[in-house]
Design goal:
Blueprint (H helix, E strand, L loop, with lengths): L6 E5 L17 H11 E5 L1 H4 L11 E3 L2 H8 L3 E4 L6 E5 L5 H18 L3 E6 L6 E5 L5 E5 L2 H13 L4 E7 L7 H7 L8 H15 L3 E6 L23 H9 L3 E4 L26 E7 L6 H8 L4 E4 L9 H4 L4 E3 L2 H12 L20
Parallel strand pairs: 1-2, 1-12, 2-3, 5-6, 5-9, 9-10, 12-13, 13-14
Antiparallel strand pairs: 4-11, 7-8
Length: 364
């Protein structure tokens, strides 16, 4: 007996809000792998998949930058799976020589050991000047002092033939801070994530290419109290390896709208490629129960796509009840996988719970 056809599913775990699962480097990967097996086709964003020196390739998982995933959910983009991407590497001019060399050696290692097509490498014409901050809720955020330098370097990479771009920018070191210590011991929020999202959103939106970011930081001293979720970030000198692997098969971004008119192009014959993943095929979206206010979730809810809200504690309390959204509650990603299997097989999730409410005939 074979499973039903794949159920195209979005997995969203917002970055920088301290999610118990998915709030660290790659600790959302086990959940993504399970949901990919249950659904047969999973679209998720880099911070779910990026484990610094650790990574996992799965042809059922599609690696899509966060703002592009939102646009896919809103019906503005289709995704075209590819065999490989030509990876341009964009380096911040503010990276010191030794740290720059470490990142170049990671790229060389991925070429030699994994067979990835990498190059060209472009350095920005001035330092990007990344700064980090926290919002009132404790969520991480950041600013880019020289966004035009980022865009110029990205445009040059695209002109030189890059089809996806890995960005490495110098982030401020914060070795002695209480916030970093709490994070390393499993009690804090990823202080880099918000700024990383700003960089990748800006570049991908400007170029229309898959993009992902790796921060350049000085190595930290070993910590015997390190939380297992933070361990992947401390195995090497850079975070670049997982980004290169993820982008190497990231799907192409195919616009479905005319910028000047906003015309829906999804039914155009030119887009009748059977391999395209179209937003109309989305069958479910999975997100933390307290973080349902993002663009992808709201776009899916507006279109009546089933929402699975997973108990995954974070700083936010933007719940289905607060937003007035219908949702299937899951106590874990394991339970969410079961709900996806039910949806994939055409089984009503309500039929799996007890008591089973009786039908209420309506009078004419």
């Amino acid at each position: 007996m074979t499973l039903a056809p794949p159920l195209l599913t979005l997995l969203v775990i917002p970055t920088g809000i301290g999610c118990a699962i998915g709030g660290y480097a790659g600790d959302g990967l086990p959940a993504a792998r399970l949901l990919a097996a249950a659904s047969g086709c999973l679209v998720t964003h880099p911070n779910v998949m990026n484990g610094a020196s650790l990574y996992w390739s799965d042809p059922r998982i599609h690696y899509v930058e966060g703002s592009s995933l939102d646009r896919f959910a809103a019906g503005e983009l289709a995704l075209r799976p590819v065999r490989r991407q030509r990876l341009g590497v964009l380096l911040d001019a503010g990276i010191e020589a030794n740290l720059r060399l470490r990142h170049l050696q990671v790229a060389e290692g991925c070429r030699a050991s994994l067979g990835l097509e990498i190059g060209p490498v472009v350095t920005t014409d001035q330092p990007l000047e990344v700064s980090l901050s926290r919002g009132p809720s404790g969520m991480s955020w950041g600013r880019l002092g020289q966004p035009d330098a980022l865009l110029r370097a990205g445009e040059r990479l695209k002109a030189l033939g890059a089809t996806a771009i890995a960005v490495v920018s110098r982030f401020p070191d914060d070795d002695g801070s209480e916030a970093l210590q709490a994070y390393r011991q499993g009690r804090g929020v990823d202080g880099l994530a918000g700024a990383e999202a700003v960089i990748s959103h800006l570049l991908s939106g400007h170029l229309g290419l898959p993009c992902a970011h790796a921060p350049a930081l000085a190595p930290l001293e070993p910590d015997p109290g390190l939380d297992p979720r933070a361990a992947g970030e401390e195995l090497g000198h850079t975070f670049l390896a997982c980004v290169l692997v993820g982008l190497s098969r990231a799907p192409d971004l195919v616009s479905l709208t005319c910028p000047s008119e906003g015309v829906d192009l999804e039914r155009r014959p030119a887009l009748a490629d059977p391999g395209l993943l179209l937003p109309g095929a989305i069958g479910a979206v999975v997100a933390p129960a307290g973080a349902l206010g993002g663009g992808a979730v709201l776009a899916c809810a507006e279109r009546g796509i089933p929402l699975i809200a997973v108990a995954n504690p974070c700083l936010l309390q933007v719940t289905a009840g607060a937003l007035g959204l219908p949702a299937l509650a899951a106590s874990s990603y394991s339970e969410a996988a079961g709900l996806l299997l039910a949806l994939r097989e055409g089984i009503s999730p309500a039929a799996l719970t007890r008591p089973l409410a009786p039908l209420l005939p309506l009078s004419s």
